[in-house]
């Protein structure tokens, strides 16, 4: 009997040793409506890990088998939503969720150094962004209340402030990277911002400020590859070589370039490409004698389809294709595998 008892105790201890400690959330929740919810998801694969109704009390809940990695804590209260990044691991998380102040980072105490760095990131964000966010709220409200006579002016003003917001977000990440050059969080934050195509130079500047170990990590190498790809497609950048031939069998020749060149990547079977062709024909007639050249690069595989559309849509600017479809080097070098894509290039840059 004693042997069986010892065996049960041993098995129980083994199971408890194998069972990871949970991530426990102790949150003070207040000022939310009756149907508000908290959702915790993995930021890496989108898996929903926990959904809880907000009770406007001291709430405690657990994620029993947490997987280390980036996660989001999201609140939804009607149309009001808040979303915050954090680093998920086992241990205790404490904080305050306030429905009247959703811009405030809710987590005040976390179990790991990785998590503490996120608290610092959001402190930087609060310090650097308050005035701009207040101004953006004002112009967004003005846009909502616009009349037909002033809607264009207010829309342009809102766009300017949105651009300022993107630059501010990059500056916040830059400040964080300077404080934590050895943190992989910077790679994650840049990835989540998702403006590599339009802000390649700023991305590269931030990337170069990181420790070599972070740069040479798998995520670091992937981001650098993305930055370099985006740099190739920016207006004014040096244009990669165009592979393939024109319908007459001639290879791409730099002599066709003018002061400004618009590279248009397309396919004959893409509806958006065909619709764009109608607009491009008119634009080409307007600009072709003003030191501007259009250059079509097709990702087609079937020569007949490609040539027939050139004829049917009256595309009179230079056209090239290697007829390799998505496997074409042009797809990678000129449009990052996107159709339809246009980019302007200057001669000599």
TrEMBL record:
PANTHER family in UniProt: THIOL:DISULFIDE INTERCHANGE PROTEIN DSBE
Compartment(s): Cell envelope
Signal peptide span: 1-23
KW Signal (keyword) present: yes
Gene3D superfamilies from the UniProt entry: Glutaredoxin
Cellular component terms (Gene Ontology): cell envelope
Organism of origin: Pedobacter psychrodurus
Alphabetically ordered keywords of this record: Cytochrome c-type biogenesis, Disulfide bond, Redox-active center, Signal
Claim: DNA repair is one of the keywords in the record: no
Pfam families according to UniProt: Thioredoxin_8
Domain Thioredoxin-like fold residues, every copy: 259-318
Cited InterPro entries: Thioredoxin-like_fold, Thioredoxin-like_sf, Thioredoxin_ResA/DsbE_sf
Highest taxon, organism lineage: Bacteria
Protein name according to UniProt: Redoxin domain-containing protein
GO biological process: cytochrome complex assembly
């Amino acid at each position: 009997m004693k042997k069986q008892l010892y065996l049960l105790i041993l098995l129980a201890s083994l199971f408890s040793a194998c069972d990871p400690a949970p991530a426990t959330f102790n949150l003070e929740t207040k000022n939310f409506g009756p149907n508000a919810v908290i959702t915790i998801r993995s930021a890496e694969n989108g898996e929903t890990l926990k959904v809880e109704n907000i009770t406007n009390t001291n709430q405690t809940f657990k994620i029993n088998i947490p997987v280390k990695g980036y996660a989001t804590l999201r609140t939804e209260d009607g149309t009001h939503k808040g979303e915050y990044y954090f680093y998920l691991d086992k241990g205790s998380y404490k904080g305050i969720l306030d429905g009247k102040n959703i811009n405030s980072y809710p987590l005040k105490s976390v179990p790991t150094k990785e998590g503490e760095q996120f608290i610092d990131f959001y402190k930087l964000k609060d310090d650097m962004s308050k005035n701009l966010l207040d101004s953006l709220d004002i112009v967004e409200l003005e846009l909502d209340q616009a009349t037909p006579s002033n809607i264009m002016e207010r829309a342009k003003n809102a766009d300017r402030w949105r651009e300022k917001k993107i630059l501010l977000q990059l500056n916040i990440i830059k400040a964080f990277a300077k404080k934590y050059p050895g943190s992989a969080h910077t790679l994650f934050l840049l990835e989540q911002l998702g403006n590599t195509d339009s802000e390649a130079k700023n991305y590269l500047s931030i990337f170069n400020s990181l420790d070599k170990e972070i740069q040479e990590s798998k995520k670091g190498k992937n981001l650098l590859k993305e930055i370099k790809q985006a740099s190739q497609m920016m207006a004014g950048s040096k244009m990669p070589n165009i592979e393939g031939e024109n319908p007459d069998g001639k290879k791409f020749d730099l002599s066709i370039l003018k002061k400004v060149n618009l590279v248009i990547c397309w396919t004959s079977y893409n509806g958006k490409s065909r619709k764009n062709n109608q607009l491009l024909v008119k634009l080409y007639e307007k600009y072709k004698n003003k030191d501007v050249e259009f250059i079509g690069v097709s990702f087609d595989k079937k020569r007949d389809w490609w040539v027939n559309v050139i004829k049917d849509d009256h595309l009179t600017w230079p056209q090239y294709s290697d007829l390799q479809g998505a496997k074409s080097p042009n797809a990678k070098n000129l449009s990052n595998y996107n159709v339809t894509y246009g980019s302007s290039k200057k001669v000599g840059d």
